[in-house]
Amino acid sequence: MQTYLSKLKIIMLCMLFSLTSYANGGDSPPIDPNNIKMKCFGTEPFWSFTMSKEEFVYETPEIKKTPYKSVKPRLAQGLPTGFLMVFETHALKKTKNKATLVAKKNPAGCSDGMSDKSYPYDAVLILHDRVLSGCCDNQ
């Protein structure tokens, strides 16, 4: 049942990010799935999810640095490498906290809603019982 729900969750997220554009777009360099280095973030509420080869870290103004296991992304078949990536991971502390992050290349650019800056990826983070949206940038 748990595996079914995980797969259903991913399918629903992919539907949210309807794959209408296959262009790479943007000025960011292509992502190497074997060496991820990205920072995803959102505003209202403020959150960040930093990803590197060593670990992933979730942080908010209230919650300081919760480490998660670094994992390779699942890539969408039939799309350019790095166009749509799904990361499923769990906290390194002895908890049952899981996180799923979906990052989709946005040729038009993702806006954080607070600045004029444009970021190359849209992001959805499912964390515990919350669903957060935002942007991602290569680091």
Provide keyphrases for this structure.
single chain, 139 residues, mainly beta, nine-stranded antiparallel beta sheet, 1 helix, 9 strands, signal
What does this protein look like?
The chain has 139 residues and is mostly beta strands. It has one domain. The chain is built from one helix and nine strands, in the order H-E-E-E-E-E-E-E-E-E. It has one helix at 2-16, and strands at residues 38-42, 47-51, 55-59, 66-69, 74-75, 84-90, 98-111, 118-127, 130-138. The chain has a nine-stranded antiparallel beta sheet, with helices on one face.
Average pLDDT confidence is 83
- Side by side, the strands of the main sheet go 4-3-2-1-9-8-7-6-5
- Radius of gyration, whole Å: 14 Å
Going by helix content, strand content and strand pairing, the class is mainly beta
- Report on the biggest sheet: 9 strands, antiparallel
What is the molecular shape?
Answer: globular
Separation of the first and last Cα atoms: 37 Å
- Order of helical and strand elements: HEEEEEEEEE
Q: How much strand content do the residues show?
A: 35-45%
Give a short synopsis of this structure.
The chain contains 1 helix and 9 strands, in the order αβββββββββ. With 139 residues, it is mainly beta.
